[in-house]
Amino acid sequence: MHLLSILLQNISDTEGLRLFGMKLINVEDFVSLLVRFSLNLIVIIVIVVGLYAKNSRRKDFYFSYIAISIGIFLLCFLLANVKMELGFALGLFAVFSIIRYRTDSIPIKEMTYLFVVIIVSVINALANKKISYAELITTNLLIVGGLYIMEKILNLRQELSYRILYEKIENVQTGREEELLADLKLRTGINITRFEIERIDFLRDVAYINIYFDINGKKKLNGNEN
User: With 0-12 CB in 10 A as exposed, 13-18 as middle and 19+ as buried, what is 118?
Assistant: First the structure.
């Protein structure tokens, strides 16, 4: 404790020092950064690992959720005291609101978790001194609790989709939906819940079909899960 007091005293003594017009350290803001960052990271890990991971078999979003959370938190925290024009602020929010990866479409549930990660990070970063830590922690607990209720009590299903190229064009005709669904299930080995015909190419006699299935009810194909 004595060494910690000496260290804090030394840090406080250097608080007035500046380098190129910027303070070397602001003790109050520095401690606030560490405390809020730790709180935000704990909450995000609980959401991603404790809730999302246990109810989803997809691990490709773990890195993205945590990385986006860290980036947004630090961005918002460091720019909280910077005067920004309204247009820039709205543009920044719009960019975060339409995040999607061009390589693969994000399912609705994953996109919802992405918005939750963004919201939690922004709340923890931009909460001002008028808000107590008790209120901030309660807000985070309410978000985690709401997700837990929706995941566990409501037992929401996670639906995935594949886009396939289908060549038996005669089954795409109106009135043959049952034959088409049965053939898709037989070929893929997946318990398909629904499908959508995206496009029909009459020159090649093929159709582009999106199939949807519950990830927890997905069957094994050739002894391996895709």
Answer: buried
Tell whether the model's pLDDT for residue 161 goes beyond 70.
Answer: yes
Helix, strand, or coil (residue 11)? helix
Q: Comparing 71 with 23, which gets the higher pLDDT?
A: 71
Are 212 and 160 spatial neighbours (Cβ–Cβ below 8 Å)?
A: yes
Question: What angle separates helix 27-45 from helix 2-13, to the nearest 10 degrees?
Answer: 120
**One-letter identity of residue 188:** T
Compute the distance between CA of residue 168 and CA of residue 188 in angstroms, rounded to an integer.
14
- Record the tokens describing residue 16, joined without a space: 């007035």
pLDDT in tens, 166-210: 988 888 888 888 888 898 888 888 888 888 888 888 888 889 998
| Six-digit token string for 128 | 């001002």
In whole angstroms, give the CA distance from residue 187 to residue 59: 26
